[in-house]
Structure to design on (504 residues):
């Protein structure tokens, strides 16, 4: 019998609501056979190994807390592949709205996606992404099916995607075909199709970026490398 | 997700020319062989799905999304669609209200991308990934800006939208039927009325689907089916085994599809240079 080495995966949370961490935990039972997950919920103390194949990072980086950027740089050194899991980590997400003056840390004024600090290989938006998403990711990743993961690869090069970007890049430019993908993708119902075109309810958009990666035209803009 | 040019037709498992065996289906306004309707009828009657979500042409070129749960409802949707029907949100509502557990979706390549992605990469808890059993994509060269095209027909030919009884694609032209009358318009004349977004779309067949279906000019009266995975293959083969479909090999016309795909890609590249 061939012994297949499990993929060593580290989870690091740099500050978020734990929704993404819970999603990872929920995905784990079905991934156990193939990956060895090192997550704070399942250990006492520090990470178990010095090197990891993949690091899953959740949460956005507080730029007013230098130790977090430092911690991320250390993880980058330790891990072969960095995956930004969830909208905060990938695109800033709802943390983009932070402007300081809030308890318990009024001094925290600015959050960024992790690719503002380190190089990221894949970004998976979603608030939070589902456990099945992570299972699919690892399946394709371990099978080496890079084309299937290309959307997440290019998303890693982008710092901000939201309903606002969707309206700007697809609707106002006249590229929208009216398929309705964005409306169905929005977790907060911030998008409604009116006259076959999406209309954004701005105060509802949490800037998770799901609509953008799901839009057939916007994803094409992403894949074509036009979006920065 | 395939890159333009990287893999034009997507993953291919089987290519078939097929035709419905049911006379009822063939008598409807089917685009070619009625194979999509027959295949889904098989899925519905053999209880592989609880419902089929498709667009039904209502008046003229206008369409509305429906969930077909019976043979009669499904036959009503037979025929090609000339207008995009944004049915995603409606599907969600219907699936949730009616408690549909397994549905088949007939859609266009852009919509197949959503359903395909939703199934493979469910980003949201609310995604219907496990409920969408089959995704059938129709070949698509683009969708008209509905009002503008209808206006053009009315101004130039005096045909009102609601009078149109059928639309067919011929070699290099579009055939618009009004009762017994037929109007033949060159495609060159209708292309400017396509949606701008469709002009940069590079997916002709729907690479995210389980089965892609369309017609080729060389084989009138037959539907070309491209299966993309085991699920799609089983659906087509099952429909043949149960006598719903007549099948023959279709690899010899794949080059025609490839040509269509290349044309669409060329157009997309050309337009992307200007539009993006």
């Amino acid at each position: 019998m061939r012994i297949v080495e499990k993929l060593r995966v580290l989870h690091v949370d740099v500050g978020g609501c734990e929704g993404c961490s819970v999603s990872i935990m929920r995905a784990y039972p079905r991934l156990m056979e193939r990956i060895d997950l090192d997550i704070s919920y399942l250990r006492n103390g520090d990470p178990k190994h010095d090197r990891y194949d993949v690091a899953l990072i959740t949460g956005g980086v507080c730029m007013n807390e230098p130790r977090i950027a430092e911690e991320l740089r250390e993880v980058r050194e330790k891990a072969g592949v960095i995956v930004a899991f969830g909208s905060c980590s990938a695109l800033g997400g709802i943390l983009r709205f932070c402007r300081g003056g809030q308890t318990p840390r009024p001094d925290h004024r600015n959050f960024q996606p992790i690719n503002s600090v380190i190089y990221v290989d894949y970004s998976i938006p979603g608030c939070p992404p589902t456990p099945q998403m992570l299972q699919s990711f690892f399946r394709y990743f371990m099978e080496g099916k890079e084309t299937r993961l290309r959307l997440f690869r290019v998303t890693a090069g982008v710092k901000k995607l939201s309903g606002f970007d969707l309206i700007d890049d697809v609707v106002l430019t006249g590229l929208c075909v009216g398929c309705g993908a964005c409306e169905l993708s929005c977790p907060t119902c911030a998008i409604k199709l009116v006259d076959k075109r999406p209309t954004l309810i701005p105060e509802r958009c949490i800037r998770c970026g799901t609509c953008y990666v799901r839009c057939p035209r916007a994803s094409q803009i992403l894949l074509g490398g036009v979006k920065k | 997700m395939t890159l333009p040019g990287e893999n034009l037709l997507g993953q291919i498992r089987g290519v078939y020319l097929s035709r419905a065996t049911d006379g009822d289906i063939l008598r409807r306004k089917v685009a070619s062989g009625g194979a999509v309707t027959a295949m889904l009828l098989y899925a519905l009657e053999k209880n592989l799905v609880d419902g089929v979500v498709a667009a039904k042409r209502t008046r003229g070129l206008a369409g509305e999304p429906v969930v077909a749960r019976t043979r009669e409802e499904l036959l009503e949707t037979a025929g090609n669609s000339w207008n995009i029907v944004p049915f995603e949100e409606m599907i969600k509502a219907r699936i949730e209200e009616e408690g549909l557990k397994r549905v088949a979706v007939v859609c266009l390549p852009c919509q197949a991308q959503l359903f395909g992605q939703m199934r493979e990469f469910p980003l949201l808890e609310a995604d219907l990934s496990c409920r969408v059993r089959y995704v059938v994509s129709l070949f698509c060269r683009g969708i008209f800006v509905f009002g503008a095209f209808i206006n053009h027909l009315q101004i130039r030919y005096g045909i009102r939208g609601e009078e149109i009884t059928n639309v067919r694609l011929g070699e290099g032209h579009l055939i618009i039927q009004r009762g017994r009358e037929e109007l033949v318009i060159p495609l060159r004349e209708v292309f400017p009325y396509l949606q701008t977004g469709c002009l940069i779309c590079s997916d002709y067949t729907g690479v995210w689907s389980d089965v892609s279906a369309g017609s080729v000019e060389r084989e009138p009266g037959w539907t070309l089916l491209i299966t993309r995975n085991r699920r799609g293959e089983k659906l087509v083969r099952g429909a043949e085994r149960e006598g719903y479909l007549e099948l023959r090999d279709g690899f010899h016309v794949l080059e025609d599809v490839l040509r269509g795909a290349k044309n669409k890609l060329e157009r997309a590249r050309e337009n992307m240079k200007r539009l993006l």
